[in-house]
Amino acid sequence: LATDWTVSDDGLTYTFTIKSDVKWHDGESFTPEDVKWNFGFACKALVNAQVGNALPSLVGYDEWVDQTEITDLAGSGTQLDNEGIVINGNVITIKLTEPNSKFLTVLVQFPMLPKHLLVNEDPLTFHISNFWINPIGTGPYKISLIKPGSYTILEAFEGYDGSAPKIQTIQVLRVASTDVSILMALDNKIDYLSGAGFDAVMENPAFRRYDNLGIYERYFEANTTGAIGDFDEGGLNKNIGDVRVRQALMLALDRPAIIKAVYKDSVKLANASLPSDYPWYDKNLAVPGYDPEKAKQLLEEADYDFNEPIKLAWYYNDQNSNDLITAAAASWEAIGLKVELLHLTTPEADTYTLVTTKDYDYCLFGCGFSMIEDVYIRYTDGYPSPATTAEDTAVFSELTTQMETVDMAGKIEILKKMQVYEQEIYQNIPLFFMPRYNYINEERVIKATDLIADETLNYKRNIENWEIISK
Questions:
Q1: Phi, psi dihedral angles at 423 (to 5 degrees)
Q2: What is this structure's pTM?
Q3: Is residue 183 exposed (0-12), middle (13-18) or buried (19+ Cβ within 10 Å)?
Q4: Does the pLDDT value for residue 7 go beyond 80?
Q5: CA 272 from centre of chain
Q6: pLDDT-derived band of residue 195, with 50, 70 and 90 as boundaries?
Q7: How far apart are CA 315 and CA 428, in angstroms?
Q8: Neighbours of 65 (CB within 10 A)
C-alpha cells in the first residue's frame, strides 16, 4: 500500500508515501484518509493484539480513546483531529511519543478497513457488523462467497494494482480437524496447507514441505489467580496459588517420556517459552527434572488439601492431545492428587467461557508468536485475560515495555530475565514446540516465491504469480 517509507533517527517519526492507484474491491479508491481513519478506529476497536499493544505509542492516542461520543468516530464520519497523524497529499506522517522498535513490523499486520463502508459503524460492535457478510480489501483476490464454518471462495480482482493473478479462483476450506486435513491432502483434495501437526501429509509424494519460520508452543498454563470469585484472601487460586504446589505438579510429570510416547519425534521438548536451539534461549537456565518424591514433599510442605481436585482443561479434539491429558492426569494421581478433567468440545465458545470465568487450575494451551517482543505477551496487561497475578503481570508488562526501546542485544538480555522469572514462579509447565510448515502439492501448484512464512501473517508471497499445473 506504500511505495516507500522512512523512519527518523530518533525513532519517533514514520513517513509513508501511499500508492495512488490502489482500489478497494468495490472499486472505491484507497487513500491516506483511509489510513488515518483506521488508526482512529483501531484506538476504539480491537483490531488485533499486536496493533492494540502498539497504538498507545501514537501521539494523540489518549485523546482518541477518550472520545465518548461515537459520532466522533462514526455517524458523522469525522474524527477529532490528531497531530500524531498528518496527511500531505499522498504522504502520511505518523508520530510517536516514544520509540517503539516493533512499530514498523506491527504495521505490516495492521489490516486496513474501508472507511467508506464502516464510517457509520460503532467501533465497539463492528465485529458483528453486516460488513463481515461480504468483507472487502485491496489485494489480488476478493471474496465472492462465504459459507460460514465451511469454505470461502476467492476470485481474482480485476482492479488489482499489481500483476493480474494467474490462478482465477481459490477455495479456502474450514476443515474440522488436523486429521481430516491430512486425509484430504493424501487424497489430493487440498493443494496447500499451513501449520503444525501435518507431517503425515508427506506420505503423499506430490507434497513438498517448507519451514515457515513460525514458533508454536504447547504448555500447561497455571491459573494462579483462580476462578472469578473463588480465591484466597491474597487473591490467589486456593488450589495452586502456592508456588510450591505448582513446582510439585511440574516435578510429577516425566515430560520427556510422556512427550516421546505421545508425539514420537514430531515435536521438540520445551523447557521454557523459547526453543532451546534459539539464540534468545538462556543456556544457563536450570531445567527441573522428573522427581515425584520431591513433588510429594513440596505438597506436604504447602499443606495441600488432597481432597481438592486439580481441574485440568483442554480444548483440542485430536487423539494426541487426549492421550497427553490422560498421561498428565495419571502422573498427578500417582502422587496422591485427584484430577478433574474438563474437555471443551466446542473450542471457540468454551474457550471464551474458560478465560473469562477462569474456572480451571491448569489448561493445555497453544501459543504462537512471530516477533521477539511477543514471546511473553500472554502474561502482560496487554493480554485480554492473563492468568498471572497482578504482581507478576506488572513484572512481565514492564519488561515487555523495556524491550520496545532497546536494540536486539538488549532484547535478548531482557528475554533471559523473563525466562528466569517465569521459571521461578512456575507460571506454566512447558511441554513441546510444534514445528510449523507449509505443505504444497507441487504436482499441481507452482509457487512464485522463495519466501514461505506463517500463513497467519501478512508477507510478500507473490500469490498473483502462482500457477496451477494443467494435466
A1: -70, -35
A2: 0.71
A3: middle
A4: yes
A5: 18
A6: confident
A7: 17
A8: 13
